[in-house]
Every structure is written in C-alpha cells, then in structure tokens.
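Lab notebook page, bench 4
Experiment: in silico fold of construct C2
Operator: M.H.
Input chain length: 140 residues
Purpose: comparison with the prior construct
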Amino acid sequence: MLLLAHCQQEVLSEVRPKEAVFGKAFVLEQGEQLEVKGDAAPLVLQVEKLNDSRCPKEVVCVWLGNAAVTLTVSGRGEASQQLAFCLGDCRPEPVRTKHTVRATISNQTYDLTLLEVMPHPGTEEEEGSGSVKLLIEPVN
C-alpha cells in the first residue's frame, strides 16, 4: 500500500510540477504558486481570479461567453504585478482562443500567453477549482 501511494505521488508531481520552464506550456491551478525558470530571471506566478462564463459544451447559447483570468506575477525581490487575460467573447476585442500579454518584470520583457482555461463548463471534470494552461517566453 505504501509503495502504491509513493508511485501515485510521483505521477502527480510529473503532471503538476512545482516549477516550470520558459518556452514550455504548463498548467497552474487556481491559488497555486509556481516558479518559472530558464535562461531569464525566474518568475513566480499565481492565479488570483478565474471567472468562467463560457457557453457549456453541447449547449446552444446566444452569447459565447468568456473566461477571465487575473494572474499575479513577480520576480525575485520585486513587487508583484497583476495581469488580466480573457478567452472567448472579450468585447470590444474580437473572439480569441488564446491571449498574450507582454510584461516587463525585473528589467526583462516576457510574453505570457493564456492557452486554455480548464475545465470547460458542462464537462464531467467541472467540479473543483479551475486551472489554466500558460506559456511564458522571454523577449530578447
């Protein structure tokens, strides 16, 4: 039994790493804090807010809806910044399936891209807190 618990813990840490790498997509749970490392100065991220009003799967809606995410980002020893992202119908912007925000943190510029908000409303995985899939790349 102990061996099984140890194996399960290893699998979960591979699926939800406690640190991520620049240039590689990763998943971040709402409220979880994660450090992103690589060739640029490391960043610490946390999903502060996640509001999802997207139309559920298998439903016909008058309005597509959107998923709005507020992400707190900070460098080591720096004050944090809050960045806002939106997927879906983010009026007055056009409908988008991903959203990139450029930010300068610790004298380094980064492109932070929200690739996905999970789970999608109306799916079996919907219970519990949400998570986001992100990609962060330093800009030279």
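Observations: Confidence is low (pLDDT under 50) at residues 1-15. The CA atoms of residues 6 and 12 lie 10 Å apart.
Next step: discuss at group meeting.
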